[in-house]
Design a protein that fits this description.
Order of helices and strands: HEEEEEEEEHHHHHEEEEEEE
Number of domains: 2
Structural class: alpha+beta
Oligomer: single chain
Number of strands: 15
Radius of gyration: 22 Å
Helix content: 25-40%
Strand order of the largest sheet: 4-1-6-7
Length: about 300
């Protein structure tokens, strides 16, 4: 009896120590992230108001995907694009408009309106926002029976950071032999960390180069905490958690080959798909899990190194 009780005490002690260490590691990561992130008094923000219906829209900023808006019917959202701006100067917004699902050509049901805006200081009221560019589908698009329309919008940005030297330190991954095989293998490693709830290694891998996001969004310590915790959730035991196999992917290079990722070939969603939560007991989704998550970590390779890192 005494031996059993002693073993139980030891197990509880070990579990409690592990929990404390995880909490300590997380707090250390948050503190280090905040303390090493440059702070700026001037905090300009650039963003995009997106409204679309009757079509599918893909948008990139400076050769980096902002989002794929393939939802059926109408859709409206606002996106901040600071994190896609490497430095002050010339920028490029690229918009690809595709037919709605089931159609071969863009028809008269398609409608797109984008407003590129600027605000001088994060947190300023909406009435202080300045519209830099307004973009709509070219006239008579529906009469031309086009399978897609590409629109490129140049604009100027003035920001208090410069990450050009960092990007210059990266390998052009398009020139790496067997790059697809290597990327798939790396994604399998990431997926395994999520499956096994290897949170510490997962976080160390995922947040190593997140300083750019912390800085470009002018994150407070609390915002950094919430951001890191949201990433940590991927590698956390969740109710009915299931991480689906990686399949039906396409290899995508961005930032002039400095960044690579895998995404779903059909939907363009993240290729690492996780389902979790309670099981639906009625309706169209009966028998399915109530929540899902899609991930496509961005991979980079620093010159002189042999291991991928996450951007």
């Amino acid at each position: 009896m005494k031996i059993r009780m002693l073993i139980s005490i030891i197990i509880l002690f070990v579990l409690n120590s592990c929990a404390q260490n995880k909490s300590k590691n997380m707090n250390t990561m948050i503190n280090e992230a905040y303390e090493t992130t440059p702070k700026h008094n001037k905090q300009p923000m650039y963003g995009l108001q997106i409204d679309k219906m009757g079509c599918r829209v893909s948008i990139s900023v400076n050769d980096e995907t902002l989002g794929n808006y393939f939802d059926k019917g109408g859709f409206s959202t606002t996106e901040t694009i600071n994190g896609h701006i490497i430095k002050s100067g010339n920028q490029t917004l690229k918009v690809l408009v595709y037919p709605r699902e089931g159609s071969l050509f863009i028809d008269d049901l398609a409608n797109v309106k984008l407003e590129l805006f600027y605000v001088a200081q994060k947190g300023d009221p909406m009435d202080s926002y300045k519209i830099l560019k307004t973009v709509e589908l070219p006239k008579n698009t529906k009469d031309k029976r086009l399978p897609y329309v590409e629109i490129n919008i140049p604009f100027e940005a003035n920001v208090p950071w410069d990450y050009s030297s960092f990007y210059n330190s990266l390998v052009d991954l398009r020139k790496v032999p067997d790059i697809e095989k290597k990327v798939v293998e790396e994604y399998e490693k990431i997926r395994n960390m999520i499956v096994t709830n290897d949170q510490n290694n997962y976080l160390n891998f995922r947040i190593k180069h997140k300083k750019m996001e912390y800085e470009t969004f002018y994150m407070s310590k609390e915002e950094i905490k919430e951001y890191i915790e949201s990433i940590a959730k991927d590698a956390t035991p969740l109710e009915n958690k299931e991480v689906l196999p990686i399949k039906n992917y396409e290899l995508v290079f961005e930032k002039d080959g400095k960044k690579v990722l895998l995404r779903d070939k059909t939907t363009r969603d993240g290729i690492i798909r996780m389902e979790y939560g309670s099981i639906n007991t009625e309706g169209d989704y009966k028998g399915e899990k109530s929540k899902e998550m899609y991930l496509s970590p961005n991979l980079i390779l620093v010159k002189g190194k042999t291991e991928f890192e996450s951007l």
